[in-house]
């Protein structure tokens, strides 16, 4: 990365375009060193010097990327991470992950292109979409992405025809979704009784099935779901040996990891114990995983600007320039109470975070003209008295946020700028 920290205290401010954006006036390639690692100071400097137009923007903290990678390696030293691009395809973030040695899980041609364009080797990509359009399979064959997943016989036929050298992982349905926020088992994964016919179909097609993959579901809350899934994977290895397939050698644990609290550490313990229990004697086993949320969630902070205000009785209503059709689309699928930090640099420059100030019942609206574009209602959260052009800062906005944004109503929040900072991870 061009963005470096000299002593861990300084940050480098460097406006970068996210993948889809191109406002040329802000696309300057200069960097301005900052004297303070504090994120709010950094955000303030962006607001003052770069965001005169008050568009929403993201800050990517490369120091947090580094500490998450360290945490992954410390807890799962033998599990190779393939970052799941769909969670957040921000180009500077993908670069940072590549620089830290991550491999990548891609689900489409465009995701593979994004990763290969960074100079990542096609050997470091798993095409982990069990049902792929033919044109995307042909592209994978052309560029040498030679590992993919499948869970249907029709996929076997497509791969045989368009990418016969591709190695396969059979995707199985995890027996338990770990109470995840986004279970995937309804759509993907072979059922136990489907495994043998699928392996035989691959065998008949002369394709190499090298291992097993699963995904317990995104945002899983119970670590023991990994144990039952690893046990199920063991059975598939045995079935493959039983029908005379060459020895399987890859176990893909999928995603489902989170970085908040200690759930990740619990998952890592469960995984290590289960791999030892079920695969302890397996020589040459490669264990991989496809973490998305774990790496993306806490590395991004979103700054939004207050573009409207109305006072009704005791309730303050604010409009900000990002919402349900932008970075907060996940609120349609999952209840999360977002609690932004006020940053009242317009109305309260002497106390921008409004420390110690009175708060009011407040509603927060997104910018579109849909009545469901609401971030929170007055019954859910309180804010201090804010004024037009003050800012609201949302931490932990990296996973399934901007990646899901649309251009509905002409608000293209998916193309907000990303600024890079480097905090000193504590
Ligand atoms: C979405 C997805 C992931 C990432 O899941 P997280 O819960 O964000 O870690 C990994 N693998 C596959 C196949 C996926 O579909």
UniProtKB/TrEMBL annotation:
<protein>
    <recommendedName>
        <fullName>ornithine decarboxylase</fullName>
        <ecNumber>4.1.1.17</ecNumber>
    </recommendedName>
</protein>
<comment type="pathway">
    <text>Amine and polyamine biosynthesis; putrescine biosynthesis via L-ornithine pathway; putrescine from L-ornithine: step 1/1.</text>
</comment>
<keyword id="KW-0456">Lyase</keyword>
<comment type="similarity">
    <text>Belongs to the Orn/Lys/Arg decarboxylase class-II family.</text>
</comment>
<feature type="domain" description="Orn/DAP/Arg decarboxylase 2 C-terminal">
    <location>
        <begin position="57"/>
        <end position="398"/>
    </location>
</feature>
<dbReference type="InterPro" id="IPR022653">
    <property type="entry name" value="De-COase2_pyr-phos_BS"/>
</dbReference>
<feature type="domain" description="Orn/DAP/Arg decarboxylase 2 N-terminal">
    <location>
        <begin position="65"/>
        <end position="296"/>
    </location>
</feature>
<dbReference type="InterPro" id="IPR000183">
    <property type="entry name" value="Orn/DAP/Arg_de-COase"/>
</dbReference>
<dbReference type="InterPro" id="IPR022643">
    <property type="entry name" value="De-COase2_C"/>
</dbReference>
<dbReference type="InterPro" id="IPR029066">
    <property type="entry name" value="PLP-binding_barrel"/>
</dbReference>
<dbReference type="GO" id="GO:0005737">
    <property type="term" value="C:cytoplasm"/>
</dbReference>
<feature type="compositionally biased region" description="Polar residues">
    <location>
        <begin position="19"/>
        <end position="33"/>
    </location>
</feature>
<dbReference type="GO" id="GO:0004586">
    <property type="term" value="F:ornithine decarboxylase activity"/>
</dbReference>
<feature type="compositionally biased region" description="Polar residues">
    <location>
        <begin position="1"/>
        <end position="10"/>
    </location>
</feature>
<keyword id="KW-0663">Pyridoxal phosphate</keyword>
<comment type="subunit">
    <text>Homodimer. Only the dimer is catalytically active, as the active sites are constructed of residues from both monomers.</text>
</comment>
<feature type="active site" description="Proton donor">
    <location>
        <position position="369"/>
    </location>
</feature>
<dbReference type="GO" id="GO:0033387">
    <property type="term" value="P:putrescine biosynthetic process from arginine, via ornithine"/>
</dbReference>
<feature type="modified residue" description="N6-(pyridoxal phosphate)lysine">
    <location>
        <position position="86"/>
    </location>
</feature>
<dbReference type="InterPro" id="IPR022657">
    <property type="entry name" value="De-COase2_CS"/>
</dbReference>
<dbReference type="Pfam" id="PF02784">
    <property type="entry name" value="Orn_Arg_deC_N"/>
</dbReference>
<dbReference type="InterPro" id="IPR022644">
    <property type="entry name" value="De-COase2_N"/>
</dbReference>
<dbReference type="InterPro" id="IPR009006">
    <property type="entry name" value="Ala_racemase/Decarboxylase_C"/>
</dbReference>
<dbReference type="InterPro" id="IPR002433">
    <property type="entry name" value="Orn_de-COase"/>
</dbReference>
<dbReference type="Pfam" id="PF00278">
    <property type="entry name" value="Orn_DAP_Arg_deC"/>
</dbReference>
<feature type="region of interest" description="Disordered">
    <location>
        <begin position="1"/>
        <end position="33"/>
    </location>
</feature>
